[in-house]
């Protein structure tokens, strides 16, 4: 899932530059190469098996999708050249674009796409819903496959083109034969970049190169849709020890792009004429969440979970993190992000900070003093968010145990039903703006870390997918949120922007909270 950001330590100029000098100097780099620092290191290379956004970023460069979302939220064909449906919307036929090839040189076939969709759907909540309404999914010929539904599924294209992890990326059928609970052996896609395994140095750098066989669409690039023309030869993903080191390296010209800049260095970065900041609002903002583990005490108790709504202070949390006013939203009660079409305050009446009431409710809940074990990503802004909540929890009577770890360890620990109670994260607005994509609501009653379940939600989700109009979807989304406030799958700790930074000599960099390095040139 989600995000982590390195330490916000202030590094003195000389020390920072000394660290930055470990990075290969600009003169030694190829003219058409970029070196970038992303939110974290890429450790999992299979976009079907995890909701981690760093894996999604990797997946969007190395793999490709049948459909993709544009800046307006519209779904457009990507690998698909043409498609049609029967008048009753039950039979859909998809024809792949000509000339698509895997990175190993083999042609992309309809059989590959069928196998990919079936594998992806095992782990993805939306995929499961689609397949439950699917009567058959088969290849017709080398470039055509057909999907037959049991009943209309109005959001079919939105599901096939969703920008949310796990991504419905296509891969060769031999890789898609890998069980969905195991990772693929090698990341072979058909995307605009190729992964260079022999140049991968875990803990240091990963190298992607331009895919010379990639056939870009003719349309102009538009968020994740349209043409993806790669104008650089090589993309190096560097691993940094902390944010301050990365920010100083950016100002020194040792790296070209940094996904998340440290808030405490923004005043310096804003004055540097060689650096440009990208701070976007709306759906490009992030939503912070505390994910609760419903499978183990104390949050297996609904009464204990509900106490938590009275302890999360969004304004205090964003202030503690250091988010400037211009990069944050006011307290947002909507699971589906504020400022989006489905935004609502339905059910939010219980989410009022009130320590006295929380203390009384906790005493009446049956809480037995079990430790609340919080998995925190060491040095991250989400760890700072956790500290604000922890103080309130202790003040009302919770026993709290904080366990700082690195992100890979948190990912491994959260997969187990015991040994943890909650973890703080933050996610793209594109992940959280709908019940269908919000990690913790969409996964209701699914085998997903946290294991929250209220049987009303899956039925409401089905109704949401079958709703024909936006107004119908708005009403159902509000109904789902009312249940979510009762169920407490997660607690929102704020909506905000983290600016990215890049060198001013870069041209054509797509303005998005998603790092995208097709079209960029220098």
Structure keywords:
7-stranded mixed beta sheet; 20 strands; alpha+beta
Notes on the protein architecture:
- This protein has 522 residues and is α+β, with helices and mostly antiparallel strands.
- It has 17 helices and 20 strands.
- Strand 7 and strand 8 form a beta hairpin.
- Helix 1 crosses helix 7 and helix 16 runs antiparallel to helix 17.
- The protein is globular.
- 50% of the residues are buried.
Give the helix/strand layout.
Blueprint: H1 13-20, E1 33-37, H2 53-62, E2 64-65, E3 67-69, E4 75-77, E5 80-85, E6 91-96, H3 110-123, H4 125-132, E7 134-139, E8 144-149, H5 156-160, E9 169-170, H6 173-176, E10 193-195, E11 205-210, E12 234-238, H7 243-251, E13 257-258, H8 266-271, E14 275-278, E15 286-292, H9 302-307, H10 314-321, H11 355-364, E16 371-377, H12 381-396, E17 399-405, H13 407-414, E18 422-428, H14 429-432, H15 439-442, H16 456-466, H17 470-487, E19 490-496, E20 500-503
Parallel strand pairs: 1-12, 1-13, 16-17
Antiparallel strand pairs: 2-9, 3-4, 5-6, 6-8, 7-8, 10-11, 11-12, 13-20, 14-20, 15-18, 15-19
Helix pairs in contact: 1-7, 3-4, 10-12, 16-17
